[in-house]
């Protein structure tokens, strides 16, 4: 616990002083002017995570259901192997691949490309979490539904999935927490934007990219913003992880 306490304490001392209403509601000021905030990065991170969630959550849930319902098939074995390999791929490699797939053909960095890169990082976590959660559900529940004449697909969607909903949501939150702090893929895809933007087909700023860019600059005002953004990002990721932990304990208590 000591490293975590030291990191949080250091970020609290350096970053909390920058937090105010203006910090969250205004974009960075031009170079040489004091003030400004990280509104563009906050909006950009939320949009990127939203795109990643929309792309990864349905596919990850469907794959997790398939793997939990087909434990011994050859396709399921190959799918599990693919998920394990994908989980170990470095994030910067994912960023390079998405750059080749979605940035070069359109000659444009974009929010969609950044969200696709984060979705690939989230996908293995969602799949594994959904599979493990649904495997822990007692088989008597599905057997009872099947004995009443309920079709198998309705048993899955009306009995198994709702029963494991807390565990599935936990996996989604862990995937979001993993994606929220990634910087390397966004260097190749979203690229960054000093202005507030809601356009999904244009470059966009994010908290990790802003921290990287401002923390390495020689300007004290930008470094101050970087520390404040670091504190906000760590608190957000910590909140997602604690929520996931709470839901996991609550779900396991049911069984």
From TrEMBL:
<dbReference type="GO" id="GO:0035435">
    <property type="term" value="P:phosphate ion transmembrane transport"/>
</dbReference>
<dbReference type="InterPro" id="IPR035906">
    <property type="entry name" value="MetI-like_sf"/>
</dbReference>
<keyword id="KW-0812">Transmembrane</keyword>
<keyword id="KW-1133">Transmembrane helix</keyword>
<keyword id="KW-0472">Membrane</keyword>
<dbReference type="Pfam" id="PF00528">
    <property type="entry name" value="BPD_transp_1"/>
</dbReference>
<dbReference type="InterPro" id="IPR005672">
    <property type="entry name" value="Phosphate_PstA"/>
</dbReference>
<dbReference type="InterPro" id="IPR051408">
    <property type="entry name" value="Phosphate_transprt_permease"/>
</dbReference>
<feature type="transmembrane region" description="Helical">
    <location>
        <begin position="108"/>
        <end position="127"/>
    </location>
</feature>
<keyword id="KW-0592">Phosphate transport</keyword>
<feature type="domain" description="ABC transmembrane type-1">
    <location>
        <begin position="42"/>
        <end position="244"/>
    </location>
</feature>
<dbReference type="InterPro" id="IPR000515">
    <property type="entry name" value="MetI-like"/>
</dbReference>
<comment type="similarity">
    <text>Belongs to the binding-protein-dependent transport system permease family. CysTW subfamily.</text>
</comment>
<feature type="transmembrane region" description="Helical">
    <location>
        <begin position="225"/>
        <end position="244"/>
    </location>
</feature>
<keyword id="KW-1003">Cell membrane</keyword>
<keyword id="KW-0813">Transport</keyword>
<dbReference type="GO" id="GO:0005315">
    <property type="term" value="F:phosphate transmembrane transporter activity"/>
</dbReference>
<feature type="transmembrane region" description="Helical">
    <location>
        <begin position="156"/>
        <end position="177"/>
    </location>
</feature>
<feature type="transmembrane region" description="Helical">
    <location>
        <begin position="79"/>
        <end position="102"/>
    </location>
</feature>
<protein>
    <recommendedName>
        <fullName>Phosphate transport system permease protein PstA</fullName>
    </recommendedName>
</protein>
<feature type="transmembrane region" description="Helical">
    <location>
        <begin position="41"/>
        <end position="67"/>
    </location>
</feature>
<dbReference type="GO" id="GO:0005886">
    <property type="term" value="C:plasma membrane"/>
</dbReference>
């Amino acid at each position: 616990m000591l490293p975590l306490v030291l990191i949080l304490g250091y970020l609290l001392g350096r970053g909390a002083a920058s937090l105010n209403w203006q910090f969250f509601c205004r974009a960075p000021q031009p170079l040489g002017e004091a003030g400004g905030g990280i509104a563009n990065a906050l909006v950009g991170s939320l949009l990127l995570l939203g795109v990643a969630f929309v792309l990864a959550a349905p596919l990850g849930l469907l794959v997790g259901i398939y793997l939990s319902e087909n434990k011994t098939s050859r396709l399921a074995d190959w799918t599990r192997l693919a998920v394990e390999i994908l989980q170990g791929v470095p994030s910067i490699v994912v960023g390079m691949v998405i750059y080749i797939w979605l940035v070069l053909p359109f000659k444009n960095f974009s929010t969609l490309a950044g969200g696709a890169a984060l979705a690939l990082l989230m996908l293995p976590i969602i799949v594994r979490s959904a599979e493990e959660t649904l495997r822990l559900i007692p088989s008597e529940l599905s057997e009872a539904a099947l004995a009443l004449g309920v079709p198998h697909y309705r048993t899955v969607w009306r009995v198994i999935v709702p029963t494991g909903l807390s565990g599935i949501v936990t996996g989604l939150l862990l995937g979001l927490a993993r994606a929220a702090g990634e910087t390397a893929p966004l260097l190749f895809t979203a690229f960054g934007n000093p202005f507030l933007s809601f356009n999904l087909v244009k470059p966009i700023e994010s908290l990790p990219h802003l921290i990287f860019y401002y923390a390495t600059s020689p300007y004290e005002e930008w470094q101050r913003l970087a520390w404040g953004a670091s504190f906000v990002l760590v608190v957000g990721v910590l909140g997602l992880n604690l929520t996931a932990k709470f839901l996991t304990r609550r779900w396991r208590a049911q069984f």
